[in-house]
Amino acid sequence: MAETAEARVIQIVRKSFPIFPQLGREDGTPLVEHLLKKACDEVAPSGQGKTTGRKDHPFNMRAVRDFKNCNVHHSTCIETKKAATVGLGFQTDKDFKLPEMDEMGREKKEPEKPSKAELVLNPLCEKHFQDVQTDFCEDYWSTGNGYMEVVRDGAKIVGLYHVPAPDVFVVIEGDGFNKHYEVTTDETSDKKFARFGDLDDFLTRDVGKELATGEKKVTELIHFRRPTSLSKEYGFPDWLAGTAAIELVQCLFQHTFDFFLNRGVPEFMLFLLGGTVDEKTWTSIEAAMEAHIGLQQSHKSSAFNIPGPEIKVQLEKLAMEGKTDGLFGEMMEVTGLNIVSAHRVPPLLAGIQTPGKLGATNELPNAIMAFQLLVIGQAQKDITTTLECTLGNKKHNGGLGLAPGDFNYKKITDQIDLDKADTVARMRQPAAEAKAEGRDTKQGVKK
Fold it and tell me: Partner of 139 for a Cys bridge, out of 159, 165, 303, 320, CB 3.0 to 4.6 A?
C-alpha cells in the first residue's frame, strides 16, 4: 500500500441531517431577520406616489405562517389561542340564563343549540362557518391578519370562504383614500377584491370599471386585522419577540440529534505503529470502523488480527461519554418559558409544568382568568366588532337578518368551573378519592 496519509488515516466525517426547514436561511442570517424581511421585493413601486399603490407586507408573511410547524411550544400556543378565541363558537340565549336545577340540586344538562349566527351562516359555507372562522383565526394569531371572502348574487350573500393571509395585499387607490385588495396565488395573479360593503362603488371607480363589464365576478373581502401601531394596513403577530428563543430550541434539537446520530463513534481507537498492513486487512479495518456510525450503533467494539511482528498496536479510549441531558433539559425549560411569554399564554396551557409553587395551588384558575381578560378577550372583541360592522350591518349584509349582539363568542372562563378547579388544585386529597367519598368539590376546601 502506498505510503500516503490516506493509507494510514481513516477520516470519518460527522453526519448531520437537518431536521428543521431552513426557511431560506442558506446564507446563515438569523431567523428573525429572515422572517422580518419583506417577501415581495419584486413588486415594482407605484408610480402614483409613496402613499398609494400596492402595499408590501411589512414582514415575510408566508414564512411567518409556515413557521408554526417549527416549534412545539409555538404551535401549541397558536392552537390554544385559536381554540380559546373562536373554538367554542358563538353564545346563545342559553348562555345568558341561570342554570336550572333538578330536585337533587344538580344542574340540568340540556343539549346545546346552535346560535343564530351559526344557523344563518352555516349554509353559506362549503362545510360550516366554524370551519371558516377557525381558518382565518389561525392566520390572525400566526400573522396578525385574517381574511374572509364574501360572494354575492346581486345584493344577497351566497358564499363565505377563507382566504390565506399571505396571498392578500392592500392596494391604496389614486385618491389616497379608497382601497381594495389584490390576491396573488400560485394559480392566479393580482385578482382584485373589493372591501366588504364597497363593491358597488368599487365597480364605478377607474380601477374597477373594466371589471364591471368583464365575465369575471368581483367579490369582497373582510379583513380581520390585529391592531398594531407598527403598520397602517396590516396587523402584526404578538409572538415575533420569541423568534430568537425558537431558533435556539432548533439549534438545541439539531445539536442533540446530531449527537445521537454520531454516537456510534467507537469507544476506543486502534493505532497501528511501526508498519503498514496489506490492503485487504486495511479494508477490513475501515469497514469495521464505519460500522460504528449511525443510530443504535453505540458501545460497539472491534477485534483485529494484525499480521506482522513489526507492527505495534496501541489502543486509545475516546472521551465520548459526555452527556447532553442536563443541558438539554435546562435550556428547554428556559426557552420554552420565553416562547410562551412572547405568546402571553399560561405555561400550563402550553404543556409546560413548572415545579414548586408556580405549579401548585390556584395557579391555573388565575392564569385562565388573566389569559381570557388580557389576551383572548381582546381578540374576541376585535373579531366580534369586525363581524358586527360587516355581516351584522343591515345596510350591507344582504338581508341576512343578523345584527350586533349575534356575534359574541363564548369565553373559556364560562365553560370551566373555576371554583371547582381552584378547590381541586388546593386539595391534599386526590380528586378521584374525594368523589368516591361523595364530597362536593364546589363547596371549597375543607376547613
Answer: 165
Cβ contacts of 147 within 8 Å, gap of 6 or more: 136, 139, 162, 163, 164, 165, 168, 181, 221, 222, 223, 224
Q: Maximum CA pair distance of the chain?
A: 101
- According to DSSP, the residues that pair with 171 across neighbouring strands are 54, 180
Instruction: Report the pLDDT value the prediction gives residue 128, as an integer from 0 to 100.
Output: 93
Instruction: Look up cell 488515516; give the residue.
Output: 9
Q: Are 64 and 55 in contact (CB under 8 A)?
A: no
Nearest one of 144, 129, 127, 120 to 86, comparing CA atoms: 129
Query: 178 with 144: CB under 8 angstroms?
Result: no
The structure's pTM equals: 0.74
pLDDT at 254: 81
In the three-class reduction of DSSP (H, G, I as helix; E, B as strand; rest coil), residue 179 is classed as: strand
Measured in residues, the chain has a length of: 447
User: How would residue 446 be classed by pLDDT, with cut points 50, 70 and 90?
Assistant: low
Long-range contacts of 289-296 (CB under 8 A, 24+ apart): 289/10, 289/12, 290/12, 292/264, 292/265, 292/266, 293/12, 293/15, 293/262, 293/264, 293/265, 294/15, 294/261, 294/264, 295/260, 295/261, 295/263, 295/264, 296/264
**In angstroms, what is the C-alpha Rg of the chain?**
31
Residue (of 193, 194, 279) closest to 4 by Cα position: 279
